Amino acid sequence: MKKLVIGAILGLLVSGVLAYAGLSQWQVTPPVQKASNKWVDISVTPVLEERYTLTVGYTGMMLEVRNKTNEGVLINWDETFYLMAGVPNGGFTLKGEQGGQHRGFDIIFSGETFVKTIYPVTLVTASDISRLTDIQLDWMHKAMPTGENGIDIKLRVGFEAFSEKLTFVVSE
Questions:
Q1: Domain annotation for the chain: domains and CATH numbers
Q2: Of 8 and 139, the one with more pLDDT
Q3: Could you give the CA distance from residue 43 to residue 138 in angstroms, rounded to a whole number?
């Protein structure tokens, strides 16, 4: 009986390892994309999410913008776009928002850093999730496709408007 239990446990472990070995191993190049100018330092890090998504893969980006000026820097979300294969393809929603595109401006005060996880709106979809007793609408993030992905971010300092394009390549 003891040998049977040990054999069953080993069989489960081996099948788990073999199942994991068959999964796609997503990669992104470069792992962190950075840009810097006299006003800001920007970095974008693709976010690999394996839970609460329709598919395993890079579903969003960690956006970090550091203000190097003595005045406020504005992120103009109405003119900031998700880049798919180098082409603008909709805007972004922020982590915790329900589905729609984030609009307006976020202000980054002097010396401060803005850090948020952002998701391409074109890859967000509604899904019915059963939660114990009733069905509720939930938002799911699809994985970014293989190939070039990124952000074209529009910023403003005083009367000066500028943009930065940061891209990375997703592959399996």
A1: 26-171 (2.60.40)
A2: 139
A3: 29
